[in-house]
Amino acid sequence: MPRAVPLSLTLADLAARLGADLHGDPAASITGVAGIEEARPGHLTFVSNPRYAKLAHTTSATAVLVDPAFPTISASTLRLTNPYLAFARALAIFYEPPVYGPGVHPTASISASARIGTGAHIGAYAVISDEVTIGNDAVILPHVVLYPHVVVGNRFFAHAHAVVREYCHLGDDVLLQNGAIIGADGFGFARHFDLKHEGLAWHKIPQTGPTVLENNVEVQANACVDRATVGETRVGAGTKIDNLVQIGHGSVIGKDTLLCAQVGLAGSSTVGNNVILAGQVGVVGHSVIGDGVTVTAQSGIPGDVAPGATVSGFPAFESREWMRSVAIFKRLPAILRELRANSKDR
Length: 346
Hints:
- By secondary structure, this protein is an alpha/beta fold.
- It has a twelve-stranded mixed β-sheet, covered by helices on one side.
- Helices cover 13% and strands 28% of the residues.
- The chain is flat and about 75 Å long.
């Protein structure tokens, strides 16, 4: 992985940094982190999914992050309760991201009425509009646009081409990946008879309410969090929104929730805390999804979901029942033949 100055740590040092129990050579050198199939001598890798447990016996990695009960293998092991989290922390140790020092690029457009905290980095062709307020230590990369009256907290990080629309509020430590759009108009239209064209037409409803992102929210590439018709659209602290997610106007998302790739929430959806909506889940407007719900990939939510449920399918229902139903569905032709044979015997 790229680094200006290659880093080498002993296993003993790495184990201390990660809070792991070391089983192996404490003097062994670790120079990088890799997946279990690509790892080479000098690499640290991990096993958290049972599907990859066998690979731990054949990996070329010098050391493997595993849970405390994992069997002994030829490679050294660093044992701790959450190997995946430890792997993420190890990546942060060995990866050196670009550093954006304070300063304003000469091509950036910054309104005289904007208020920007200390330590800001503002890149080429960024636009900071009238009455914008930005906290300390912001990093705003090229072509980012903040519309008038946006308020942003400390340590804001916006990658190239992210856009925040007028009157939106973002808390501390918000991260916008490339092309994220915060506060675009919600999809609101009223049908009416158009005398001029002598037919039905759609009248645009003004979208007057802001989008609010609380602290430590991340919105990834080309995701859209629409503004509200009235009131606000709100995303709770710690929630992570994946690429190409669509959050409809007036929706409320709780804290520490995951919305995975291509999830779509229709307007006025309510999603609780610690919810996981897997890829391509669709939610009907005005639905309420309770705290702790998990919805598996490509499921459709036609209404409310009780807290703590795990649901699947379309329309989504309890996941274990759905899996049994799918298994039966594949057997329907054989079951039908069996029923016909039995009926003839009678």
